């Protein structure tokens, strides 16, 4: 027996914000469930099989919560809400996309997927977090957002960004310029995120005072980093020795996030990745957390998600062909 459910759009919320211009958002939801959806005034009627009608109703209820939280709904956010509701056992869309990490230039930065929410929560509670996943899953961007938040809240005194310069073989002394100029090409993704999250000119002042520091991984040796939020990016290109050196720099009242994609290792053939090795070495150490992101957490163009998944399948099938 088909089930009929009614959703009332509360006063103060424009129905068009929920269903989209010319009902484009409504049609996206209707296309995902075996239900007919009718809008009349501020009433939405959903008719269909019991489970599908209930899930469609849950999507609308979650979207209404997001609207109350200040979201502007888009096709992307609606699609992600549908995915999370279909997953059933995961977090609610409003819990994920309603979690504001930091607001910059009037724009809130939030996780967009259940995996990103796990990553953000892990970073809040753990001293050391390893975020492992493919390109486009927000590993670097969210780490920088969490660092900026910690700096604004005076939880730490400085942000330190580091990355192995594999292409230069860490032989940075042979490159022209000062330290910052030498490693700029390798730290550009971190710069891009910082420029987006800080007011114009603010980054330069913080860098001059040493509040934000950039340092190639080779320059970290022998230091103890207190009161800092440290981000090691592209960690799949560290050796086990470099990874150990970095992890033992962590000082008092500090937090570290290590990001990397173990499918994109640029080390010489035969050289083990420190990010691969550390998963086995530290598996029983407390106070740290490994977060694994996958194609479902890619927040770039949808085709990127499909490309990542296609490569994953290809890599799984290769051994079978040998």
Can you characterise this structure?
The chain has 322 residues and is an alpha/beta fold. It contains twelve helices and eleven strands. It has helices spanning 15-19, 24-32, 50-68, 75-87, 93-97, 114-125, 139-152, 179-197, 202-209, 240-247, 274-281, 302-321; strands at 3-8, 36-40, 43-48, 102-104, 107-109, 128-132, 158-163, 212-216, 228-232, 255-260, 288-292. It has a six-stranded parallel sheet with strand order 8-7-9-10-6-11. It has a three-stranded antiparallel sheet with strand order 1-3-2, with helices on one face. Helix 10 links the parallel strand 9 and strand 10 (255-260). Helix 3 packs across helix 4. The termini are far apart. Residues 168-172 have low confidence and may be disordered.
Task: Please give a handful of descriptors for the protein shown.
12 helices, 3-stranded antiparallel β-sheet, alpha/beta, 6-stranded parallel β-sheet, single chain, 322 residues, globular
Structure described in brief:
With 322 residues, the protein is α/β, with parallel strands linked by helices.
Outline the secondary-structure elements.
Elements: E1 3-8, H1 15-19, H2 24-32, E2 36-40, E3 43-48, H3 50-68, H4 75-87, H5 93-97, E4 102-104, E5 107-109, H6 114-125, E6 128-132, H7 139-152, E7 158-163, H8 179-197, H9 202-209, E8 212-216, E9 228-232, H10 240-247, E10 255-260, H11 274-281, E11 288-292, H12 302-321
Parallel strand pairs: 6-10, 6-11, 7-8, 7-9, 9-10
Antiparallel strand pairs: 1-3, 2-3, 4-5
Helix pairs in contact: 2-4, 3-4, 6-7, 7-8, 10-11
